[in-house]
Amino acid sequence: MTGRLVAVPHGKAYVISSPPCNGMVTPELARELEKVLERFASEAGFSEQRPVDLEFRPGVVGHHKVGRAADIYGVAGRGLERWHERWDAVLEEALRRQSREEGKAIMDRERKTNFGWRLYKALQIHGRWSQPGGYPVQLFGPWTRSEGPWTLISSGLLRAHRDHVHVAK
Ligand SMILES: [Zn+2]
Questions:
Q1: pLDDT value, residue 134
Q2: Inter-helix orientation angle 80-96/115-126, to 10°
Q3: 155 C-alpha to ligand 1 centroid (Å)
Q4: Number of Cα atoms under 13 Å in the Cβ half of residue 24
Q5: Could you tell me the sign of the dihedral formed by the alpha carbons of 153, 154, 159, 160, in that order?
Q6: Ligand 1 centroid from CA 90, angstroms
């Protein structure tokens, strides 16, 4: 039986720019997302005066059918796919540098300012997502192979998540 579903709530330092129907989830998932998104937004320097926007889109398969999953496609006015492309380009640039210090400085800056990556890491570090028996932790996105938690993600599943982050609880 499917219980009552709710929209992912707005936070203090973040706003949901997509229609509420794009992120209808169980109250439990809504609470978890609210907690993590608020932390992501405030740690990334956003505030009530200057909140960051997040875009959800509805999913259809698996956990989505019962509201136990949510898909985030955009953050800070940019799609996750764009944030990931930027990350790859900056990483390539960093690896081309002769000095390791220079390369490290480039990536340190990117880790501060790439809000797609920051969102993914906040979801990974602060969120508690479901892990059905025998399955990996249900957090998939463009950074899953490089950052975890499931670094063995198949190429097909990685490709399916190149433009959004999926979480389930
Ligand atoms: Zn999904």
A1: 87
A2: 100
A3: 16
A4: 9
A5: negative
A6: 27
Residue 135 alpha carbon to ligand 1 centre in Å: 15
Give the burial class of 64: count Cβ atoms within 10 A of its Cβ; 0-12 exposed, 13-18 middle, 19 or more buried. middle
- Asked whether the beta carbons of 56 and 22 are under 8 A apart, the reply is yes
The confidence band for 2, taking pLDDT boundaries of 50, 70 and 90, is: low
Supply the pTM of this predicted model: 0.96
What is the predicted pLDDT for the residue at 116?
98
The Å distance, Cα 35 to ligand 1 centre, comes to 19
* Beta-carbon neighbours within 5 Å of ion ligand 1: 59, 69, 71, 166
**CA-CA distance, 115 to 42, in Å (whole number)?**
12
- Distance CA(98)–CA(130), nearest Å, equals 43
Assess whether pLDDT exceeds 70 at residue 31: yes
Domain boundaries, the chain: 6-82+111-168
| Residues 84, 162 contacting (CB under 8 angstroms) | yes
- Please spell the DSSP secondary structure of 99-110, one letter per residue: SHHHHHHHHHHH
